[in-house]
Amino acid sequence: MLISKFKHTSLIKSEAKRLGFLSCGISKAGFLEEEAPRLEKWLNNNMNGHMRYMENHFDKRLNPTLLVDGAKSVISILLNYYPSKFQNEESYKISKYAYGQDYHFVIKEKLKELLHFIQTEIGEVSGRAFVDSAPVLDKAWAAKSGLGWIGKNTNLITQKVGSFYFIAELIVDLELDYDNPTTDHCGSCTACIDACPTEAIVAPYVVDGSKCISYFTIELKENIPTEMKGKFDDWMFGCDVCQDVCPWNRFSKPHNEPLFQANHELLSFTKKDWEEITEDVFKNVFKNSAVKRTKLEGLRRNVEFLK
Length: 307
Prior knowledge:
Blueprint: H1 2-18, E1 23-28, H2 35-44, H3 58-62, E2 73-80, E3 93-94, H4 103-121, E4 127-130, H5 138-144, E5 149-150, E6 156-157, E7 165-172, H6 191-195, E8 201-203, E9 206-207, H7 213-219, E10 235-237, H8 241-244, H9 264-268, H10 271-275, H11 279-285, H12 295-306
């Protein structure tokens, strides 16, 4: 049994690498004791803003065995999205994760392949793939699996590659060899806290989601509060400031996922182009993009707010 556990783990990690994942870590499925009081406090302080869905499925967020019957392991993966080319400097800015095709679909397909591989090579294994759209605390599981530590900006950070990657997981009813968490390497650095344009990092390791530029430009469907005028540093969809200033991201290397390649028009657009964007251009540039989440109406609202 012990030999097969090690063998299965090795097979899964090798296949994850072949599929293009940056890294793969595995932890024992169970209740996240340390995260429970933190999440409760965060919600009680209304740091989720209008993201009411964060209040749903509290128990499931903390216990994957409630999501997958008989769950024994959480297989966490990272997928790099750091681009080789960036937007025109004289432009309104889009978070780098949204340069290419919507990551939900790209990663889901890869995870389906990984699950199919597990079922083919190992046998009857049940499991589900989760990509950021279900009640799973991705960063907590990735940290538990030794893929990095949760930094002062609450992003998962890895010494060798920084933090420009997606996190997702397979939760399976298969016992595997589990990884150990790594140590925190933020030290005395406060670069992310100092640089946040809206002071959303209210304390080390605590982000008030209701003050984050990503929240205002993506999640908030109502008008952006007027007191935020002039604080967005030209970000019109998401924000990368706390990652851009993180010293560990000097180790970021460009991804090699063709589906994450940016549309050329998106990179060359000027502020004027964004201000005059039409429905047809929006549909063309963001055909399979995560930016479609805001719809053209939302993007126009954001651009108007930045003018």
